[in-house]
Amino acid sequence: MALDPTKFKNMRLPAIAAPLFIISNPDLVIAQCKAGMIGSFPSLNARPIEQLDEWLARINEELDPETDAPFAVNQIVHKSNTRLMEDIELCVKHKAPIVITSLGAVEEVNQAVHSYGGIVLHDIINDRFAHKAIEKGADGLIAVASGAGGHAGTLSPFALIQETRQWFNGPLFLSGSIATGDAVLAAQAMGADGGYIGSAFIATDEARASEAYKQGVADGRANDIVYTNLFTGIHGNYLKGSIEAAGLDPNNLPESDPTKMNFGSNDAKAWKDIWGCGQGIGAIDKVQPASKLIDQFVAQYEAAKARVCA
Ligand SMILES: Cc1cc2nc3c(=O)[nH]c(=O)nc-3n(C[C@H](O)[C@H](O)[C@H](O)COP(=O)(O)O)c2cc1C
């Protein structure tokens, strides 16, 4: 169950800073990796595609593989993502150490990443998708439980990790409302190898989000989160205040149609105005540099370990 130290190097905290649509950018990723967490970004945040080439070159240049944690690039594997194979070619060119795939599991993508020694982590919301991902050649899994920001699952984290660990011994990270070092340790105690932390990083100086959004995360608590499929066709968690600001009643949102899902060209508007966010943000109370947030997680993790082992 332990992570391969040649792949998961220089980590001060056993956790991945999750990819955030629009929000993650090279400044954030570099800060995360330098502070000792795996940093990541969705490749579609780099638009047009030429920018992806530049971003990957810069990240490789600024990170020192001897001292910094590796980075990950997130690929949305969905028919509406017409850039997928071109983006994968750039990951191959720049040897992205880790590729995180979301939605579909495709053998070709996994083979391309393996061709240069990279590894693929696939995110799943249930055991059926987990089996499918591993059958298609993914190396590890990210279990997205209820309460996660973005397109969250509905299952309890305990249920997901327990079922996955019955048959899978490879790298396994837990996603959903993790926003303290204590919770990262809890994920490990449960059977995962580490945590996967998204929303907490919205409240960082480097995040590409408006000041109001960052402050909304710092001020918000679990009760401020609404679960709806209205905005993308798939159920996800959002900050209530942004839904109200858009003139909608968060308590009476209509159902949406899953065929609306589109990860193609510039369909970013819904995510700019309607703020994706998980339920864990009660643990976040200020906007600060990503390195300070990670220092906070590391201190909490060490204190929790000392407490539990005492
Ligand atoms: C604003 C926002 C955007 C997200 N965008 C993506 C994305 O582009 N690709 C992806 O795989 N996951 C995306 N996610 C999900 C995260 O990667 C991660 O699973 C989630 O944030 C973890 O839960 P937490 O926010 O409670 O920590 C997004 C989440 C948020 C909050």
Computed over alpha carbons, the radius of gyration is: 18 Å
Q: Mind summarizing the main beta sheet?
A: 8 strands, parallel
List unreliable stretches of 5+ residues. Answer: none
Q: What does the overall shape look like?
A: globular
- Class derived from helix and strand content: alpha/beta
C-alpha termini separation: 24 Å
The ordered string of helix (H) and strand (E) elements is: EHEHEHEHEHEHEHEHEEHHH
Q: Please report the number of helical segments.
A: 11
Small-molecule binders here are: flavin mononucleotide
Main-sheet strand order equals: 1-8-7-6-5-4-3-2
Which bin fits the share of residues in helices?
25-40%
Per DSSP, what share of the residues sits in E-state strands of 2 or more residues? Answer: 15-25%
For the secondary structure, the number of strands is 10
Mean pLDDT: 94
Overall description:
- The protein has about 300 residues and is an alpha/beta fold.
- The chain is about 35% helix and about 15% strand.
- It contains 11 helices and 10 strands.
- An 8-stranded parallel β-sheet has the order 1-8-7-6-5-4-3-2. Strands 9-10 form a two-stranded antiparallel ribbon.
- Helix 2 (about 50-60) links the parallel strand 2 and strand 3.
Key words describing this protein structure:
eight-stranded parallel beta sheet; single chain; 35% helix; alpha/beta; globular; 15% strand; binds flavin mononucleotide; two-stranded antiparallel ribbon
Helices and strands, with pairings:
Elements: E1 15-17, H1 26-34, E2 39-42, H2 49-62, E3 71-77, H3 84-93, E4 98-103, H4 107-114, E5 119-124, H5 127-135, E6 140-144, H6 157-165, E7 172-175, H7 181-190, E8 194-197, H8 211-219, E9 225-228, E10 236-239, H9 240-245, H10 269-273, H11 290-309
Parallel strand pairs: 1-8, 2-3, 3-4, 4-5, 5-6, 6-7, 7-8
Antiparallel strand pairs: 9-10
Bound molecules: flavin mononucleotide.
